[in-house]
Design brief:
This protein is of the alpha/beta class. It has helices spanning 37-49, 70-80, 97-103, 145-157, 177-180, 187-196, 275-286; strands at residues 14-19, 57-61, 87-90, 119-121, 127-131, 141-142, 163-167, 184-185, 200-205, 212-216, 219-223, 230-231, 242-243, 248-254, 259-265. It has a six-stranded mixed beta sheet with strand order 4-5-7-9-11-10. Helix 1 (37-49) packs parallel to helix 2 (70-80). It has seven helices and 15 strands. 24% of the residues lie in helices and 22% in strands. It has one domain: Metallo-dependent phosphatases (Purple Acid Phosphatase, chain A, domain 2), CATH 3.60.21. Bound molecules: fe (ii) ion (2 copies). One fe (ii) ion binds at residues 21, 23, 63, 92, 94, 207, 209.
Length: 294
Amino acid sequence: MDGLQAGSPILVLVLIAQISDCHIRDSIGMFGGLVDTSETLARVVEHLNGLNPAPDVVLATGDLTDDGTEIQYSMFLDLVAGLEIPLLPLPGNHDVWDAFRSAFTDRLPDTIAEGHCSYVVDSHPVRLVGLDTLIPGRHDGLFHEGHEEWLDAVLQMEPDRPTLVFTHFPPFTSGLTFMDLSGLDGADRLRSVLKRHPQVKLLVAGHIHRPIQTTIGSTLVSVCPSTGNQLGLELDPMSGSAVDEPPAYQLHCWDGDCFVTHTATVWEGRRMDLSDFIADVHRRAAAGEGSPRS
Ligand SMILES: [Fe+2]
Ligand SMILES: [Fe+2]
């Protein structure tokens, strides 16, 4: 029987949370006057811990710190110490490889790619491939021939397993021109790899500090907003702003056939409990009454 039955939850074989662009800082920094990124990350962690069902894993897709210093990684680790879900970190252009690798020794897999901090986690119903395209000391990224060789080889190993690729730089033009200009060189090359491997059902990224979706071949591509400040939605090439829209994260639900992606904002809004209404919806569905307006 097609459709959801009364009382039956959506089938979720794996529930993947994503946080991005936390930009933990120990000084005022460029956007420090706008958002206290430690305070907002703490709230996101609390929110994630309260989710039912709990996510199986949290992907942290780069710019975890603002400057990649030891003290900032130490602050980040303190903030996620209470997270009750395993966290897989990936660096972004604000991170620094050596400090990143030593901060996350206990959380990174034993096997990391040669020359970049990419890796594979095979312990979930969906294969998780972390792709690092950071160029040390620069704000733009690069998907070079070495990345292509590594990613092709990894994906060729398991062509029939549904796969999620997580990375920092999105491999498409977002329309926020000032971010696109410091985006991913070699994005065409990455898009070609994705088109050769249709088992990649979803690619998730960060960097743009906004929720954005597109497709590449048959792969859904999603950008996660920041746990700190967002960027204003301004498509005028000469405009741009940082804004204090609420901290946010994404949830990617895999049902064995496709991903459903939710964007959640974390803020102190008002809440109306709908339990009585929901109980009535279930009762009507169980009785085959559908959902008449009454
Ligand atoms: Fe960022
Ligand atoms: Fe970034």
